[in-house]
Write a structure and sequence with these properties.
10 strands, three-stranded parallel beta sheet, alpha/beta, about 35% helix, 10 helices, seven-stranded mixed beta sheet
Length: about 270
Amino acid sequence: MPLHNAADRVVEGVRSVQGQSLADWELLVVDDASTDDSVARVEALAAEDARIRVLRLECNGGPAVARNAGIREARGRYIAFLDSDDAWAPDKLARQVALMERGVVFSFTAMERFDEQGRRLSAAGVPERVSYAEMLKTNYIGCSTAMYDTQFFGKVEMPLIDRRQDYGLWLRLLKRVEFACGLNEPLVRYTVRSGSVSSNKLTTAGYTWRVYRELEGFSWVRSAYLLGHQTGRALVRNRFPRVARRLGWLHSVDGGVDRDCHGPFGPSQ
C-alpha cells in the first residue's frame, strides 16, 4: 500500500485488510514522504497488529517507487496491491488465493466504484481471462484487484513512470504467461476522486501513449492503432453499454467463478 497524505482515508483501507477472512497476510504500508499524520495513524494500527509493517521513504518518489519498495520487502508468495483510498471486501484474499492455488499465477477481480461521499456509482465486471494482446486494447485490471505469484514470476516491479505504472506491470507479466484469470466478483471498493489523473480521460490517454511508446517500444502507427482501440472501446462502454456487452467489451458482475479458468498449467490435481 503506497501512502502519501491520506490521513482521511488510509485507516479504512488498512482495516479492510485486517478484516480479511484469510488471516495469513502481511501488509506493507510504504509512506512516500507524507507531511500529514498518515503515518502516525497507520503506526498506531501496526502497534497492535504485527502483520502490518510501515516503511518510510525519505523523499517523495511517486506510487511506482513506493509499490516497488513494498514488493522488495514482501515475504509472502503472492503479491497483491491496495491503494490507500480503496478497500477490500472481507473475502477478497480468501477467494483470490483459492483461485491462485488452482494453478493460476496472475489474477484480478471485479470491483465496485464509489464517489468520495461513499455513494455507489457502478460495478465493473471482468472477463474470465485476458491475454497480452487483449490488454493492449483495454486495461481490465484495477490495481487494487491484482495478485501475482512470485514462485512463478519472481518479484517483478512496476516501471518507473509517473502514471499507468500498474498497467505497465500487467503487460510485463502477460508477456511471460498466456493469460491472467478474472474473478468476476466485486471484491474491491474503488474510490473515484474528482480531479484525479485517472478521471481525466485526455491525461490518461497521454500516459497510455507513453506506455506504448516508451515501455513497449511500439511504432507511432501501432501505438495510434492501439490507443484508438482504448478510447473507442471506452466511448462505446460509456454511451452504448448494450453494444459493448455484445462485443465483449463490457462485463456484468455475475458473482461467479469461471470453473474453466485454471491458468497455463491446467487444474490442480
